[in-house]
Specification:
24% of the residues lie in helices and 29% in strands. A hairpin with a 4-residue loop joins β2 (52-59) and β3. The protein has a five-stranded mixed beta sheet with strand order 5-2-3-6-9. By secondary structure, the chain is an alpha+beta fold. It is built from five helices and ten strands. It starts with 10 loop residues before the first helix and ends with a strand.
């Protein structure tokens, strides 16, 4: 995969460029408001099992954690708590996302956040040749090797996802 340039670079793209990580950008039209991961997969033509969403959580200890899970599944908060050694984990409030990470809801990337957080990627990503995560803005996805994502954010693979009810 060769790097493709985009007119407005996001923090995520800058971080990948700085580490010389190979990636591909995919842009999609978000004007219809359909920015959920399954819709994004359909718009980009990327198989849904390769598209992952970035969720920011807070533990009972008040530490923040980042969980990267398949868009067609949901984060299992009990599994996430176990992954990070917390008694309990919950999602942060949407209004906290931008000040904490530098990213907006629907455009949150695990790469290039304002500060590094402990990050876990659902183990289903490990079996993929590439996965897609947000590039740090609504309308753009980054496709890269799971191992490269692990290395750039210092993540680990873990059992995080559950089927949507």
């Amino acid at each position: 995969m060769a790097r493709e340039k985009t007119p407005a670079k996001t923090n995520a793209v800058r971080a990948l460029d700085a580490k010389k990580i190979t990636y591909k950008l995919h842009e999609y039209d978000a004007e219809d408001g359909k920015i959920d991961g399954v819709s994004v997969a359909g718009k980009t033509g990327i198989p849904v099992e390769k598209v992952f969403k970035t969720l920011v959580t807070v533990g009972a200890s008040k530490e923040h954690y980042v969980c990267v899970v398949p868009v067609a599944k949901e984060l299992d908060l009990k599994k996430a708590a176990k992954q990070f050694g917390e008694k309990k984990i919950e999602m942060i409030h949407a209004k906290e996302l931008l000040p904490l990470t530098g990213y907006v809801h629907g455009g949150c990337s695990p790469v290039g956040m304002k500060k590094p957080f402990k990050t876990a990627i659902d183990e289903s990503a490990a079996g993929q040749d590439t996965i897609c995560v947000s590039a740090g803005r609504i309308g753009t996805q980054i496709e890269l090797a799971p191992a490269d994502l692990v290395s750039v954010v210092g993540a680990v693979f873990g059992d995080l996802a559950a089927d949507k009810e």
